[in-house]
Amino acid sequence: TPTWFVVLTSLAFAFHKPWALHTPQLYAEDGSIFLTQQEQFDARAFFEPYMGYLHTLPRLIAWLAAHLADPAYWPAIYNGASFAFTVALFFRLASARLTLPGKPALLLCFAFVAHTGEVTINVTNLQWIAAFFLILQPLLSAPPTRLALLTDLVLTALVGLTGPFSLIFLPVFAWRWFRERCTFTLLPLLVLAGCAAVQAYFLLHQPAAPATPSEPLRLLPLFSVLGSRLLVWSFFGPAVVALFSPLALAAVAFVFLSTLTVWLFRPANLRPARLILLASFILITAACIYRTRPDTWARDDLFNGDRYFFIPRLLLFWLLILEFSATSRTVAFTARALVLSGFLVHLPSYRLPAPPNYHWAEHCDPIRRGVPADIKTLPEGWYIEYPGRPQPSTH
What is the 3-state secondary structure (H, E, C) of the chain? Predict the structure, then answer.
């Protein structure tokens, strides 16, 4: 994939939410967790779990900002680093080591597949973008140099210690190694297994509060949400979702996803890559269902909790893009039509409106002085309850 196409995708990605770069502000846990705990604990914050697991990448960005710049520039560093890491992912996807067809379309998914913008260009939700480094790793060919291998291992460790994804995608790494039994698949597996062990330790000792009370799984509302969030909204827009009953949405989800799964198991070119992506899709979807329990929701407004459907939605589009070259003309045409519809139907609302500007630079002086303060930040109505910087002991 030419470099210019990566640049084009990066520009399109930024245009979806341009104010996050030209008027950067902290978002949610950017300030209330990562900034505040960096101020309280400094380097010890790297070992402080949140939601039950470590967040190494956001901690690293917060640590660098605190040690390199005045607080007035921290939102720019947070958002700029998040955007830069996303662009690095685009270059990874465009790498010659990834031999998937249709890579321009795979790249464009990050810019044009439906999402609320919740996960883009902020530190709080950077883990949902970073997880794609783990999804891509089992698809890469052998690294040509030791530096490339070292890069694989560093990225695997960094992302593996950011969020729960090392636990979710570990079976895919193990399957790739089992198929090929070589060093370049074994070493990332060992690194990710170590990350998974660390995250599992924190999850077991400091588990996050469950999203919903423990209840028996109800399949009809579960598949209804999958039908609305992953399929109908993604391919045809939110207005069409309202035309479907919960039963119809559930039927669409069950028929489409089961048919696609059976079809992807056929013996053909790209079968290993298709199955890796299918396994990743199933694992991340199951994990997000377990975390959010959408079958217990009173209603689905297509907005709240969208981050949990971001990775499954993109992987679903990727699986369809791999079918562009299917020998069945019906399958190839259907896949192309669905992806094109999914790209085009959301264009009218593509650029997100700018939120209120809370003028961070004018109100961050308490952080500069290390004194307690409540500071407005995004999303609207959110405050950073800054407790002040700990004073050095005089003893």
Answer: CCHHHHHHHHHHHHHCCCHHHHCCCCECHHHHHHHHHHHHHHHHHHHCCECCECEHHHHHHHHHHHHHCCHHHHHHHHHHHHHHHHHHHHHHHHCCCCCCCCHHHHHHHHHHCCCCCCCCCCCCCHHHHHHHHHHHHHHCCCCCCHHHHHHHHHHHHHHHCECCHHHHHHHHHHHHHHHHCCHHHHHHHHHHHHHHHHHHHHHHHCCCCCCCCCCCCCHHHHHHHHHHHHHHHHHHCHHHHCCCCHHHHHHHHHHHHHHHHHHHCCCCCCHHHHHHHHHHHHHHHHHHHHHHCHHHCCCCCCCCCCHHHHHHHHHHHHHHHCCCCCCCHHHHHHHHHHHHHHHHCCHHHCCCCCCCCCCHHHHCHHHHHCCCEEEEEECCCEEEEECCCCCCCCC
